[in-house]
Amino acid sequence: MQLRYSFRLYPDSGQRTALARAFGCARVVFNDAVRAREDARTAGEAFPAAGELSKRLITEAKQTAGRSWLGEVSAVVLQQSLRDAEAAYRNFFASLKGARKGPKLGPPRFKSRKDNRQSIRFTANARWSVTGSGRLNLPKIGEVRVKWSRTLPAQPSSVTVVKDAAGRYFASFVIDTDPAADADRMPDTGRSVGIDLGLTHFAVLSDGTKIDSPRFLRRAEKKLKKAQRELSRKQQGSRNREKTRLKVARAHAQVTDARREFHHQLSTQLIRDNQAIGVEDLAVSALARTRLAKSVHDAGWSAFVRMLEYKAARYGRALVKIGRFEPTSQVCSACGVKDGPKPLNVREWTCAACGAVHDRDHNAAININTAAGLAVTACGAPVRPEPVLAQREETGSHGHPPERRAA
User: Fold this and answer.
1) Nearest residue to 369 via CA among 201, 191, 227
2) How far, in Å, CA of 364 to CA of 342, rounded?
3) Distance between first and last Cα of the chain
4) What would the pLDDT profile of 42-95 be if each residue is shown by its tens digit?
5) Residue in 186, 158, 185, 161 with CA at minimum distance from that of residue 173
6) Are 172 and 4 in contact (CB under 8 A)?
7) Using the 8-state DSSP alphabet, how is residue 43 labeled?
8) Which helix (H) or strand (E) holds 319?
9) Cα(274)–Cα(264) distance, integer angstroms
10) What's the CA dihedral at 37, 42, 44, 49 to 10 degrees?
11) So which residues are the catalytic ones?
């Protein structure tokens, strides 16, 4: 499995200038590729091949006065930007044909220097390296200081340098994990658990454990409103407005990092302690259009479930999703009698058939566990495991305690 390990970068002023130049050149090549495709479509001609675009937009463009500055950055950065444009078009056409799962994708759009995220990618043939002093040596950029939070388990195949909206720089390494080492880290437990996600409590487990919802956005709302109010009063295009914009972006980044850390810690604990996990397949996009939209986004259920998916695939666990129309809150977990729908304000109810008193969320978690068929056999293997796709994502550390992430 391929995962990403991210680490905080601290470039000096000269390196920041070189990175800005690389970001700009990669953006220009991407936009030129999109423009060439659009011109061919307008003229009714066949789309130019990748090799032709590489020759026209990179090799020949460097010889012109208008694009001579493309030679100031690594050629690998430009080639990877061209590949990104090709991948964007492939995904767009696959989405049109229905061959790609998920929501429909639109055609690639032109990138702007004002985009919140800028990135460049170096593959192995770019000859980047990690020096003996622990710095990241990038071609035509230099040796950049890295805040390492762990050692890389294997030799990375590529590194992506990212600048986010808050002005922070990160190095994201692609690593091929070792299945044998992953199996040793997470031995079989022979246990299963059902998870009921909610807003009052972030998660209620079938064993009765209730995990409070941290509500990171709600707790930071006062600070965010103050920063946003200051931003709205700054003059457009002024340096003070840019400083305030970074202040707002950093406040939002703190909320995002804290939520991601909470998700990683909880998902890792659940994967480590249980051989099989059942979770409800919630319609988050529909719930995000209700009056509970802010609370739903603050909880981040989709990101949490994605973490469970790729960690289950990595460590040999079984993750089973229960249909969103399964009446988990209506069925008595003791006798199995369906007692009918109940409004959200009913948090406890008594079964009319057997007299059992149920906590609404705990009862739903037990039913999720049962409906998923997560009974574990004597050898520790789940009866009905469902294969899931792994997510190409892993965490790192920014080097500061408030931003520390757990895998």
Assistant:
1) 191
2) 12
3) 15
4) 999 998 999 999 999 999 999 999 999 999 999 999 999 999 999 999 999 999
5) 158
6) yes
7) T
8) strand 318-322
9) 15
10) -10
11) 196, 280, 361
